[in-house]
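Appendix B. Extra example for self-study. Work through it before the problem class; the solution is given directly after the inputs so you can check yourself.
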Amino acid sequence: MTGAVTPGSGLARALLSVGIALVVAAVIMHLSGYDALSGLAALWAGATGLRAGPPQADGQIAFGAGPFTGHLDVYNLAQSLARSTPLLFTGLSVALGLRAGLFNIGAQGQMIAGALAAAVIGGAGGGTLPGPVHLLLVLCAGALAGAAWGAVPGILRATRGVHEVISTILFNYLATNLATYLVTHGLKDPDPRKMAPQTAAIAPTAHLHPWVAGSNLTAGLLLALVAAMGVACLVRRTSAGFQIRAVGQGLEAARAAGISVPGVMVRAMALAGALAGVAGAIEVMGVHHRYVQGLAGTYGFDGIAVALLGGLNGMGVTLSALFFGALSNGAEFMELETNVPRALAVIVQAIVILCVGVRLARRSLARQVVAAVQDSDEDLLEEEHAGR
Amino acid sequence: MSAPTVAELLPDPPPAVRMENITKRFPGVVANRGVHLQVRAGTFHAVIGENGAGKSTLLNILYGRYRPDAGRIFLHGEEVTQELRGPIDAIRHGIGLVSQHHALIPALSLLENVVLGSEPVLPGGVLDWRRAAARIQSLAKQLGLGTLDLSQRAERLSVAAQQKVEILKALYRGARILLLDEPTATLAPQEAEALFALLRGLVQRGTTVVFVTHKLREVMAHSDAVSVLRAGRNAGDFVTRETDERTLLQCMMGARSGSGVAFRVPLTGELEPDPALPVPGMEAAVFRPIRPLSGSPLFQIEHATVRNLRGARAVQDVSLEVGMGEIVGVAGVDGSGQQELAEAIIGLRPMETGRLFLAGVELTRMRVRARQRQGIAYIPEDRHRSGLVLDFDIAENYLLGHEDCEDWGGGWVLKPAVMFRRAAEMVQRYDVRTGFRGVPTPVRDLSGGNQQKVVFARAMESRPRFVVACQPTRGLDVEATRFVYRTLLQARERGAGVLLFSLDLDELLYLSDRVAVMFNGRIVGLLPRDTASAERIGALMTGSAEAMEGAS
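Solution. Structure tokens for the complete assembly:
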């Protein structure tokens, strides 16, 4: 119907891309003097928790029998899933923006804004608030801060014609530097023994607890999956989503049909920002229990790759977030075990994205992305005119 | 009959152009099937046919833009099939093309535009502007264009003047065979006459001119010979003075035309049922009763002034009324403010001054959607950009603009089943040819005529009181054009008002009860049908002063 990747062929192609990328990675490992086979095995074990041979430690579950015995390392699997959680949120954020024809490069900044707000609200109440209420408040704070960070570029685009690629990049700088300032000045951890650029710890009532001891996997993953379903339903099943798609794929037709294009743009960007903001809030609540400098890593930017590999649809983005999360965790494990540098995983990631890019070049999805990136001056003039 | 001259007794020189058995396939369509074209040197040769008959494809093959899948091409008796690999080769063989879309670079001067691609160079790679300018001026004099200001930027020229510069450019590059693709599509009648006079002059001096058109009147008035294409095949070759308009039309339309003027439907009275074209089911659509308002017309725009994108006043102090059951046509050279006026009425463009009323309700401050709910429907000029979301399927496009209407399948949560059912009904009633995929077909994959049917179905099913239709038949073939005419006339029969913007004078004269003529953003004449004529409108369109005196 639209740019959505058809489930069958899309998945097959994605798997093919991954296969090609892994072969290239193996060749590089071999040429660099590493044992490619054990490197890949470690990557797989770190990514999925699955490994041949009987269990060797607690928290590993045996399966199979005889020569086909294997075990599942629950911790590794949990860490991969934990890595996927923010990626799923930022991926959805980027995908939703692109559905409206807006290239949201700003998931990074929106995530930081959400995390900062979550850290502030999480520290409030001194542990006296009832748990569920406090959790909800912190999530809302993250979502609202992210939404604000996304809505402003949306408003600028809708009323002044400022291109969202530029404004969201600038808003990333703004968020990063504002956060740096706050965690070293206004919101700095008051504990004099702690010199690190971070805020005070949030109250225990705002903690999300790990599902697997020692891991970062929390109910945040569940929330991310619900969000993915929610976004898919919104886009496919509601008139609000219909308007978003109409604006994204036929701006002029949407305008002529009486859809308020500025309104749709602002709402889509606010919602995209809220999704990224929740990613930040969940990292605060479940992983760091405070805002720490660098908490957002590159999740916001990786979200672009997640969204594109996932073909902008809910299921696709979910699978691609799980893939990138597992790849990143697997790479760390591989480095730990075999000394193969984790940068190799970044190469795998890059090759997958390139393969997707080649495929994109022939699809309407690409038209959408290209249209979002290089808007004609005419459109901008038009919007400026409308906004006047 | 006088005795044959020496020239007539000599054996015929080889034809300037001979194309044999040309076949060209595009994915999913065969544009040319074994087409022949023979053009005598030094003649004015017309190629006519409906949209999609393969005329432009044939021209583009001759110009080297497309390579034929089969067939041979001869120029002056010499085979060049293998040599025509691109426009550069065609130019080298003395072929020049003036395309439908003007190909000058707006920011460059006339001089730069003309020499672009064949710049005269002095030793050392320095451009020899002086020699180029001298050659262009002498060419212009031969063409009867007088002395040109070559430093002028192309964007400052009118469409007609740009076209002349393109012809000049082709001749500058040594064209002996000049191809023109629908050269008069965007010209006012007087401008078209001037163009033909110029081309006639060229032919007299030995240039061969091949032009593609679907305006039979031009063919009859100016050409020496005519080749007719139908559905990618040859349908006939004629010597112009030995044929007539009716014969050519029948040849163009093939079996579909019983009478000479097949697309004419009766203007008044009951519409005849036509077995070839199921009548769109507007009988089923109940128009909301329009309150009779004593004395006041259905639609009124008063003293409207509208600025265009560049901030210039594109519409100035326009006042117009449209009554119930009336079609008011708006004529004018392209770019006289029609687009801006239509957009202001729809609500897409703010009015600087002026007021709008529909059935006594003031719309001036309403948004697009609110005006639609008051009963305005819009058929935009550019259906690809403004009428449809090409990647949406038929049902989704049908919902567009009604996504908040429960009975269209909209509402907070969409109802795909309702959307599908309505779209399927609409497809059947309006005879949208969807191919095997039916309603889930992306409209991108429909033909132009079927896309326009979707646009019309959506507009008409909203039961409008007032329809603003902009160039509704542009690029459509005869059958789809018939559909459009029929639908507009049916809207009128049922009491809706129609404001019809068109560049096609025949269409305006045929459909309109009154014709308003725009020139430079103003309405310079408002003619009832019985006093309107193409000549009169044409004179007003070009701002002829005496015509204006008579028309006000």
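Self-check: Chain B has 19 helices and 22 strands. If your reasoning did not lead you there, revisit section 3.
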